[in-house]
Protein backbone atom coordinates (compact mmCIF):
# COMPACT_ATOMS: atom_id res chain seq x y z
CA UNK A 1 0.00 0.00 0.00
CA UNK A 2 1.36 3.40 -0.99
CA UNK A 3 1.48 5.76 1.98
CA UNK A 4 1.29 9.55 2.01
CA UNK A 5 4.31 10.70 4.03
CA UNK A 6 5.02 14.27 5.13
CA UNK A 7 8.46 15.26 6.46
CA UNK A 8 9.49 18.63 7.88
CA UNK A 9 13.14 19.55 7.58
CA UNK A 10 13.10 17.02 4.76
CA UNK A 11 15.80 18.36 2.44
CA UNK A 12 18.89 17.84 4.60
CA UNK A 13 20.33 15.66 7.35
CA UNK A 14 17.96 13.14 8.93
CA UNK A 15 14.98 14.44 6.97
CA UNK A 16 16.78 13.95 3.68
CA UNK A 17 17.53 10.36 4.61
CA UNK A 18 13.91 9.78 5.58
CA UNK A 19 12.59 11.27 2.35
CA UNK A 20 14.84 9.05 0.26
CA UNK A 21 14.01 5.89 2.20
CA UNK A 22 10.23 6.41 2.20
CA UNK A 23 10.35 7.22 -1.52
CA UNK A 24 12.38 4.04 -2.12
CA UNK A 25 9.54 2.12 -0.44
CA UNK A 26 7.19 3.48 -3.09
CA UNK A 27 5.54 6.03 -0.81
CA UNK A 28 4.41 9.49 -1.85
CA UNK A 29 6.51 12.14 -0.13
CA UNK A 30 5.85 15.75 0.76
CA UNK A 31 8.63 17.72 2.38
CA UNK A 32 9.40 21.23 3.47
CA UNK A 33 12.63 22.89 4.46
CA UNK A 34 13.84 26.43 5.08
CA UNK A 35 16.81 25.92 2.72
CA UNK A 36 15.58 26.86 -0.76
CA UNK A 37 18.59 25.36 -2.55
CA UNK A 38 18.20 22.04 -0.74
CA UNK A 39 14.49 21.97 -1.54
CA UNK A 40 15.23 22.56 -5.23
CA UNK A 41 17.68 19.65 -5.24
CA UNK A 42 15.16 17.36 -3.56
CA UNK A 43 12.45 18.38 -5.98
CA UNK A 44 14.71 17.34 -8.84
CA UNK A 45 15.80 14.10 -7.14
CA UNK A 46 12.36 12.88 -6.03
CA UNK A 47 10.12 13.20 -9.05
CA UNK A 48 6.48 13.48 -8.07
CA UNK A 49 7.25 14.66 -4.54
CA UNK A 50 5.79 17.83 -3.08
CA UNK A 51 8.82 19.92 -2.12
CA UNK A 52 8.25 23.37 -0.64
CA UNK A 53 10.30 26.08 1.00
CA UNK A 54 8.77 26.72 4.42
CA UNK A 55 10.10 27.87 7.78
CA UNK A 56 8.44 25.68 10.43
CA UNK A 57 8.30 28.65 12.82
CA UNK A 58 6.28 30.73 10.36
CA UNK A 59 2.59 29.91 10.72
CA UNK A 60 1.65 31.42 7.36
CA UNK A 61 4.36 29.55 5.46
CA UNK A 62 3.44 26.29 7.14
CA UNK A 63 -0.26 26.84 6.46
CA UNK A 64 0.50 27.32 2.77
CA UNK A 65 2.56 24.12 2.62
CA UNK A 66 0.13 22.03 4.65
CA UNK A 67 -2.91 23.34 2.78
CA UNK A 68 -1.24 22.33 -0.48
CA UNK A 69 -0.60 18.81 0.79
CA UNK A 70 -4.16 18.48 2.05
CA UNK A 71 -5.56 19.79 -1.24
CA UNK A 72 -3.48 17.43 -3.39
CA UNK A 73 -3.62 14.34 -1.18
CA UNK A 74 -6.87 14.69 0.76
CA UNK A 75 -5.23 13.19 3.85
CA UNK A 76 -1.93 11.93 5.23
CA UNK A 77 -0.76 8.59 6.61
CA UNK A 78 2.65 9.33 8.16
CA UNK A 79 3.92 12.65 9.51
CA UNK A 80 7.54 13.05 10.54
CA UNK A 81 7.86 16.23 12.61
CA UNK A 82 11.59 16.29 12.10
CA UNK A 83 12.71 19.90 11.57
CA UNK A 84 15.25 20.97 14.16
CA UNK A 85 18.20 23.15 14.98
CA UNK A 86 21.09 22.76 17.37
CA UNK A 87 20.65 26.20 18.88
CA UNK A 88 23.35 28.08 20.78
CA UNK A 89 25.97 26.65 23.14
CA UNK A 90 27.15 28.19 26.37
CA UNK A 91 26.40 28.59 30.06
CA UNK A 92 22.83 29.70 30.59
CA UNK A 93 23.92 33.01 32.10
CA UNK A 94 25.76 33.81 28.87
CA UNK A 95 22.96 32.92 26.43
CA UNK A 96 20.94 35.47 24.50
CA UNK A 97 17.16 35.30 24.88
CA UNK A 98 16.61 35.65 21.13
CA UNK A 99 18.83 32.60 20.52
CA UNK A 100 16.86 30.65 23.14
CA UNK A 101 13.58 31.60 21.46
CA UNK A 102 14.87 30.68 18.01
CA UNK A 103 15.91 27.20 19.18
CA UNK A 104 12.60 26.55 20.94
CA UNK A 105 10.79 27.94 17.91
CA UNK A 106 12.23 25.50 15.37
CA UNK A 107 12.38 22.40 17.55
CA UNK A 108 9.16 22.68 19.55
CA UNK A 109 6.88 25.30 18.03
CA UNK A 110 7.46 23.88 14.54
CA UNK A 111 6.41 20.46 15.78
CA UNK A 112 3.28 22.00 17.30
CA UNK A 113 2.21 23.54 13.98
CA UNK A 114 2.88 20.27 12.15
CA UNK A 115 1.16 18.03 14.69
CA UNK A 116 -1.85 20.31 15.05
CA UNK A 117 -2.54 19.91 11.34
CA UNK A 118 -1.83 16.18 11.33
CA UNK A 119 -4.07 15.58 14.35
CA UNK A 120 -7.06 17.18 12.64
CA UNK A 121 -6.72 15.07 9.50
CA UNK A 122 -5.82 11.82 11.23
CA UNK A 123 -8.60 12.09 13.79
CA UNK A 124 -11.11 12.55 10.95
CA UNK A 125 -9.79 9.57 8.99
CA UNK A 126 -9.31 7.50 12.19
CA UNK A 127 -5.84 6.37 11.21
CA UNK A 128 -2.31 7.66 10.95
CA UNK A 129 1.13 7.73 12.49
CA UNK A 130 3.06 10.74 13.81
CA UNK A 131 6.77 10.43 14.56
CA UNK A 132 8.63 13.27 16.25
CA UNK A 133 12.40 13.68 16.19
CA UNK A 134 13.54 14.33 19.75
CA UNK A 135 17.08 13.56 20.97
CA UNK A 136 18.93 11.75 23.71
CA UNK A 137 19.38 15.30 25.04
CA UNK A 138 15.63 15.11 25.66
CA UNK A 139 16.23 12.16 27.98
CA UNK A 140 19.43 13.12 29.76
CA UNK A 141 19.90 16.88 29.54
CA UNK A 142 22.99 18.41 27.95
CA UNK A 143 25.45 20.82 29.59
CA UNK A 144 26.03 24.05 27.62
CA UNK A 145 22.99 23.24 25.43
CA UNK A 146 20.05 24.20 27.66
CA UNK A 147 17.81 25.58 24.86
CA UNK A 148 18.23 22.44 22.77
CA UNK A 149 17.74 20.03 25.67
CA UNK A 150 14.68 21.92 26.89
CA UNK A 151 13.08 21.85 23.43
CA UNK A 152 13.78 18.14 23.00
CA UNK A 153 12.33 17.35 26.44
CA UNK A 154 9.30 19.34 25.34
CA UNK A 155 8.90 17.03 22.35
CA UNK A 156 8.84 14.04 24.69
CA UNK A 157 5.96 15.63 26.59
CA UNK A 158 4.17 16.45 23.34
CA UNK A 159 4.57 12.87 22.14
CA UNK A 160 3.16 11.35 25.32
CA UNK A 161 0.25 13.77 25.39
CA UNK A 162 -0.72 13.39 21.73
CA UNK A 163 -0.55 9.60 22.03
CA UNK A 164 -3.18 9.88 24.77
CA UNK A 165 -5.33 12.39 22.88
CA UNK A 166 -5.26 10.59 19.52
CA UNK A 167 -5.11 6.95 20.58
CA UNK A 168 -8.92 6.55 20.74
CA UNK A 169 -9.04 7.61 17.08
CA UNK A 170 -6.57 4.91 16.08
CA UNK A 171 -3.67 7.34 15.63
CA UNK A 172 -0.22 6.40 16.93
CA UNK A 173 2.37 8.94 18.12
CA UNK A 174 5.98 8.09 18.94
CA UNK A 175 9.31 9.89 19.23
CA UNK A 176 12.75 8.86 18.06
CA UNK A 177 15.72 10.11 20.06
CA UNK A 178 18.89 10.10 17.95
CA UNK A 179 22.28 10.11 19.57
CA UNK A 180 25.25 11.74 17.86
CA UNK A 181 24.52 11.44 14.13
CA UNK A 182 27.37 11.46 11.64
CA UNK A 183 27.31 14.43 9.28
CA UNK A 184 27.87 18.13 8.79
CA UNK A 185 25.40 19.18 11.47
CA UNK A 186 27.25 17.32 14.23
CA UNK A 187 30.53 18.68 12.92
CA UNK A 188 29.11 22.16 13.55
CA UNK A 189 27.79 21.14 16.96
CA UNK A 190 31.18 19.76 18.01
CA UNK A 191 32.89 22.99 16.97
CA UNK A 192 30.28 25.06 18.84
CA UNK A 193 30.51 23.00 22.04
CA UNK A 194 34.31 23.10 21.91
CA UNK A 195 34.23 26.89 21.73
CA UNK A 196 31.68 27.13 24.56
CA UNK A 197 33.56 24.79 26.90
CA UNK A 198 37.11 25.81 26.01
CA UNK A 199 38.10 22.28 25.03
CA UNK A 200 39.66 21.00 21.81
CA UNK A 201 37.22 19.67 19.21
CA UNK A 202 38.92 16.26 19.35
CA UNK A 203 38.07 16.01 23.05
CA UNK A 204 34.42 16.89 22.45
CA UNK A 205 34.19 14.36 19.65
CA UNK A 206 35.77 11.68 21.84
CA UNK A 207 33.32 12.52 24.64
CA UNK A 208 30.41 11.65 22.38
CA UNK A 209 31.91 8.24 21.60
CA UNK A 210 33.04 7.56 25.16
CA UNK A 211 29.57 8.37 26.53
CA UNK A 212 27.91 5.61 24.47
CA UNK A 213 28.02 1.94 25.43
CA UNK A 214 28.58 0.81 21.85
CA UNK A 215 31.34 3.43 21.40
CA UNK A 216 29.97 4.56 18.06
CA UNK A 217 28.12 7.34 16.27
CA UNK A 218 24.74 6.87 14.61
CA UNK A 219 24.08 7.03 10.86
CA UNK A 220 21.07 8.53 9.13
CA UNK A 221 20.22 5.05 7.82
CA UNK A 222 20.13 3.73 11.39
CA UNK A 223 17.46 6.31 12.15
CA UNK A 224 15.55 5.74 8.91
CA UNK A 225 15.30 2.04 9.75
CA UNK A 226 13.53 2.94 12.99
CA UNK A 227 11.19 5.49 11.38
CA UNK A 228 10.20 2.98 8.72
CA UNK A 229 9.51 0.35 11.37
CA UNK A 230 7.37 2.74 13.44
CA UNK A 231 5.39 3.65 10.33
CA UNK A 232 4.79 0.00 9.44
CA UNK A 233 2.05 -2.46 10.46
CA UNK A 234 4.69 -4.27 12.54
CA UNK A 235 4.47 -1.37 15.02
CA UNK A 236 0.67 -1.22 15.02
CA UNK A 237 0.43 -1.36 18.82
CA UNK A 238 3.35 0.96 19.56
CA UNK A 239 2.33 4.44 20.67
CA UNK A 240 3.55 6.94 23.24
CA UNK A 241 7.04 5.44 23.05
CA UNK A 242 10.31 7.37 23.30
CA UNK A 243 12.83 5.31 21.37
CA UNK A 244 16.56 6.08 21.55
CA UNK A 245 18.69 5.17 18.54
CA UNK A 246 22.07 5.97 20.00
CA UNK A 247 24.08 2.87 20.90
CA UNK A 248 22.92 3.45 24.50
CA UNK A 249 23.89 6.81 25.95
CA UNK A 250 25.53 6.45 29.34
CA UNK A 251 26.10 10.14 30.02
CA UNK A 252 26.16 13.56 28.36
CA UNK A 253 28.29 15.02 31.14
CA UNK A 254 31.43 16.91 30.03
Automatic annotation (TrEMBL):
One Pfam family matching this protein: adh_short_C2
Domain Ketoreductase, residue spans: 3-170
Phylogenetic classification of the source organism: Bacteria, Pseudomonadati, Pseudomonadota, Alphaproteobacteria, Rhodobacterales
Species per Swiss-Prot/TrEMBL record: Roseovarius spongiae
InterPro entries found in the cross-reference section: KR_dom, NAD(P)-bd_dom_sf, Sc_DH/Rdtase_CS, SDR_fam
GO biological process, one term: fatty acid elongation
Protein family according to the UniProt entry: Belongs to the short-chain dehydrogenases/reductases (SDR) family.
Superkingdom, natural source: Bacteria
Gene3D superfamilies: NAD(P)-binding Rossmann-like Domain
Name of this protein: SDR family oxidoreductase
One of the record's GO molecular function terms: oxidoreductase activity, acting on the CH-OH group of donors, NAD or NADP as acceptor
